[in-house]
Amino acid sequence: MIKSQEIKKGTCIRLDGKLYFCIDFLHVKPGKGNTIMRTTLKDVVSGHVLEKRFNIGEALEDVRVERRPFQYTYADGDDFHFMNQETFDDVMIEKELITGVEFMKEGDILDVVSDASTETILYAEMPVKTQLKIVYTEPGLKGDTATNATKPAKLETGVEVRVPLFINEGEVIEVDTRDGSYLNRVK
């Protein structure tokens, strides 16, 4: 158990049977009355964000979470198999628990966050940037670098992203896994 004033960014607490990460907090001392903690909490499973106020000194159930690197090995339907980089155990994670799953290819290393007390996997997330090869796009034309025009390109994982006109098939690009945006060409 922790006191409400000990909440910081990244603290994980159990509230109403659900796990939440603190993404923002603020000590508020009104003119009258007691000091309160105003927090912004993100549900670990659904990703919903809620604002919650706690009185100073209020006891909360904290959850110890662990981040470990896992390597993606293969997919089996909607379940994905990962290898723990420390113990080499094979672990299966459902598609819904993985952020950036459409940009994942064999051999990628993901951060897997789990509840330390129950060893339950809460979620897995791809690195913010990943490098992928373009398997199909319309040919680029010389001199197409002046405008911000884009075209669709299919990547090796099967996902389609928008790339500048000068990018050609067979090139490797860097992609932001949060929103699927093109970042730059890899030389």
Describe the structure.
- There is one protein chain.
- With 187 residues, the protein is mainly β.
- Helices cover 0% and strands 55% of the residues.
Q: Can you give the helix content as a percent range?
A: under 10%
CATH class of the largest domain: Mainly Beta
Net shape: flat
Structural class designation: mainly beta
Q: If you consult CATH, what is the topology of the largest domain?
A: SH3 type barrels
Could you spell the SSE succession in H and E letters? EEEEEEEEEEEEEEEEE
Please tell me the CATH architecture of the largest domain by its name. Answer: Roll
Distance between the termini: 51 Å
User: What is the arithmetic mean of pLDDT?
Assistant: 88
Organism: Alloprevotella rava
GO cellular component, one term: cytosol
Pfam families: EFP, EFP_N, Elong-fact-P_C
GO molecular function: translation elongation factor activity
Break the fold down into its secondary structure elements and pairings:
Blueprint: E1 2-3, E2 12-15, E3 18-28, E4 36-43, E5 49-55, E6 59-62, E7 65-76, E8 79-84, E9 90-94, E10 98-99, E11 109-115, E12 121-125, E13 129-137, E14 150-155, E15 160-164, E16 172-176, E17 182-185
Parallel strand pairs: 10-12
Antiparallel strand pairs: 1-6, 2-3, 2-6, 3-4, 4-5, 7-8, 7-11, 8-9, 11-12, 13-14, 13-16, 14-15, 16-17
Protein name: Elongation factor P
Keywords: Cytoplasm, Elongation factor, Protein biosynthesis
GO molecular function: translation elongation factor activity
Features:
187 residues; mainly beta; OB fold (Dihydrolipoamide Acetyltransferase, E2P); 3 domains; six-stranded mixed sheet
